[in-house]
Design goal:
Layout (H helix, E strand, L loop, with lengths): L2 H18 L6 H14 L1 H19 L6 H11 L6
Length: 83
C-alpha cells in the first residue's frame, strides 16, 4: 500500500466515523484529524470532499448541535483551500 492509498483509506475511515457517529462529541475530533490528513494529502481529500460535505451538512442542520460544533463544521469548509 502506498502512502496515497493509505491516506485514502484513512479518509474513508474518518468518513465512516462521521457517518456512524451517534453523538456530536465525535464530530470535532474526527474533523481535526480530517483536516490534518487533508493538508498532507489534498488530492485524496478532494476525492472524498463531496461525501464529507454531505455528512457535515447533516450535522449542521441537527437541532441538538451546539454553536461550538456549528463553528467547527463551518471551519471545515475552508479545508478545501488546501487542494
Amino acid at each position: 500500500m502506498t502512502y496515497n492509498e493509505g491516506a485514502l483509506f484513512l479518509m474513508r475511515q474518518l468518513q465512516k466515523i462521521l457517518d456512524q457517529a451517534d453523538s456530536h462529541e465525535m464530530v470535532i475530533p474526527t474533523l481535526e484529524l480530517t483536516v490534518i490528513v487533508a493538508q498532507k494529502y489534498p488530492l485524496e481529500f478532494d476525492s472524498q470532499f463531496c461525501e464529507f460535505v454531505d455528512l457535515l451538512v447533516g450535522w449542521s442542520v441537527d437541532p441538538d448541535v451546539g454553536l461550538m460544533l456549528e463553528d467547527e463544521i463551518s471551519g471545515m469548509w475552508s479545508t478545501r483551500q488546501y487542494i
